[in-house]
Amino acid sequence: MSQLAAKQSNIDSNLLPHEQEDENQFLTFNLTGDIFGINIMVIKEILEYGEITHIPMVPDYIRGVINLRGSVVPVIDLALRINGTQAPVDRRTCIVIIEVEHDERTMDIGVVVDAVNEVLHIAKENIEPAPSFGAKIRTDFISGMGKIKEKFVVLLNVARVLSIDELAGLSQIGNSSNPGEQLN
């Protein structure tokens, strides 16, 4: 079993939302040299980076779509979306599948991250508000700053990073593609 597969297997067992009642657990990952976190309650799974089908005439931060068990899933380049720089793909690059709500229905969206780290419990008293200045990313993308020992983890606000307007556009991508098509 590859190191990534072993790590993914370990993380996947910790990501089952119906088994995790604590909303203070975050999947942490690297992105352009910084450590970010997303609440595990919205994480569905973690995939090795693979072939993504490019879609013309979409914003640059939308890498394309993947076929996930017969469903068309849009893939966002999170580094490009957050700070405007596309990170290179290497052997640790992953696609994190996030479940988001839009118009009273759920939708899966993949986000490309440099590397997945671990699931961390961050107590509420160790979560500070988003800074009002000095951050390299838009402050409305940040739900808080998690203190872990002497370091901070940037906790992302998924609803802001994947805004309603952009979700509407992504829904059109999924609806305009034929789910029966094989996307490689």
Task: Describe the protein in words.
- The chain has 184 residues and is an alpha+beta fold.
- It has a single domain (3-176), classed as CheA-289, Domain 4 (OB fold (Dihydrolipoamide Acetyltransferase, E2P)).
- It contains 4 helices and 11 strands.
- It has helices spanning 3-13, 78-83, 158-161, 164-176, and strands at residues 25-31, 34-39, 43-48, 62-68, 71-77, 94-102, 105-113, 115-121, 127-128, 142-148, 151-156.
- It has a 6-stranded mixed β-sheet. A 5-stranded mixed β-sheet has the order 3-6-7-5-4.
- The longest helix has 13 residues, at 164-176.
- Residues 1-21 and 176-184 have low confidence and may be disordered.
Task: Give a nutshell description of this structure.
The chain is α+β, with helices and mostly antiparallel strands and 184 residues long. It has four helices and eleven strands. The protein has helices spanning 3-13, 78-83, 158-161, 164-176, and strands spanning 25-31, 34-39, 43-48, 62-68, 71-77, 94-102, 105-113, 115-121, 127-128, 142-148, 151-156.
